[in-house]
Amino acid sequence: MGSKYRSPTIDRRSFVKIVTALLGSMMAAVVGLPVIQYFISPALKKDVSDDWISLGPLENYPLDIPTPFHFTLTRVNGWERSSQSYGAFVLRRPSEEIVVFSDVCTHLSCRVSWDPENEEFLCPCHAASFDKFGGVTSGPPPKPLNRYEIKLEENQLFIHFREG
Amino acid sequence: MTQSIFSWLDERLGLTAIYNTVLDRKVPKVNWWFTLGSASLFLGLLQGITGMLLSVYYVPTPDHAYDSITFIMNGVQFGWLIRGLHHWGASLLILTAFIHLLRVFFYGAYKYPREFTWFTGVILLFGALGMGFTGYLLPWNQRSYWATTVGTEIAGTVPVVGDFILRVLRGGTDLSAVTLSRFFSLHIWIFPAVIIATVITHLYLVIRLGISNIPDKDS
Ligand code: HEM
Ligand code: FES
Hints:
The structure holds 2 protein chains of 2 kinds. Chain A has 2 domains: 11-45; 49-163, Rieske Iron-sulfur Protein (3-layer Sandwich), CATH 2.102.10. In chain A, 20% of the residues lie in helices and 39% in strands. Chain A contains 1 helix and 10 strands; from the N terminus they run H-E-E-E-E-E-E-E-E-E-E. In chain A, the strands form 3 sheets. In chain A, strands 5-6-7-8 form a 4-stranded antiparallel beta sheet, with no helix packed on it. The model of chain A has no long low-confidence stretch (mean pLDDT 91). Chain A binds chain B through residues 31, 34-35, 37-39, 41-42, 45, 78-80, and chain B through 46, 49, 53, 56-57, 59, 64, 67-68, 70-71, 75-79, 81-82, 85. The structure holds protoporphyrin IX containing FE and FE2/S2 (inorganic) cluster. Protoporphyrin IX containing FE binds at residues 44, 47-48, 51-52, 54-55, 58, 69, 83, 86-87, 90, 93, 128, 131-132, 135-136, 138-139, 187-188, 192 of chain B. The site of protoporphyrin IX containing FE has 24 residues of chain B, from helix 3, helix 5, helix 6 and helix 9.
């Protein structure tokens, strides 16, 4: 090429290098930034459940013995609609106070069960125990078993289930 | 600092030598038709990247395939972009590869000593067509279902062994969950493995033998 086409400040080689690097980074950004959103967006979506769940007539639950109750809820995760099962324990006190515990261990979410012999809740995962009122008696859980908000309507027991 | 890290690595890995042989090699005076090989390579890489991303959410079973793609399109941010790139990239790749082939043919670039380069190129074209055929079934919508029904039926018209080929492609008499699963496996493992090995050979030969000249009037 004639010297009249030549730039005094930049040679052809560096010009091509700079343009290539610039276009390359632009293309990488156009694909790369959306990819981050593509990966994390399902994690940011909250699938909220907020329902009153009926546990049946109060008479079904014996006095002073934590009694299990199981229910299932339909959840939608991505392309899948699945039913998840949940568990609760109903404790009817002689004083007519009613407490409903979640069966999810407050340590790392294993399910606790009621041991009638020793009158305690046991978590099989890291050998924790809770007393009848949900308080931690041994093991790693940092706080007592969670309690559901409850209501009584015409002698039917309901719990307020919230998630998400 | 960066300079000394670079020369430490360069001394051990021979980066400058790789750069010089791969990118700074001597080429004859060529024209834009000579960029189509690189364009195909770039599109192939893009298919690989977007394909890996699709497989984050895609599920190859009849009861979930369609829903998982609907989720990619409507439930995931930029899912439409990733799928769109993969979808259009597939057709564009076949186009660039085919025009690349025509360039090589009309410039006579397939002649000695480049016959084997041509041969690996033919494998790549069939590999890309195979990727297109198997990928097309994956969305599991009406169009994919019937396209694959017809495609496998065409293979079935081969004399004598046709019925056998059709059954092997479908994994049975009918188009079924078995078909979807084997097409998926071919699409993400088997064809890519063959294609990657062949691309490496193809590029090795291009670098080893150099690019041919544009033929002049005498040749
Ligand atoms: C030569 C390269 C490739 C070609 C020509 C190709 C072609 C195709 C085609 C035509 C579809 C159907 C897309 C649609 O109709 O929306 C598809 C879908 C798909 N491909 Fe590929 N593909 C290639 C590479 C890859 C690679 C390397 C992977 C993964 C490692 C991959 C993963 C997928 C997945 C998961 C789908 C289903 C999602 C969808 O249909 O949108 N592909 N491909
Ligand atoms: S999960 Fe219950 S003790 Fe660890």
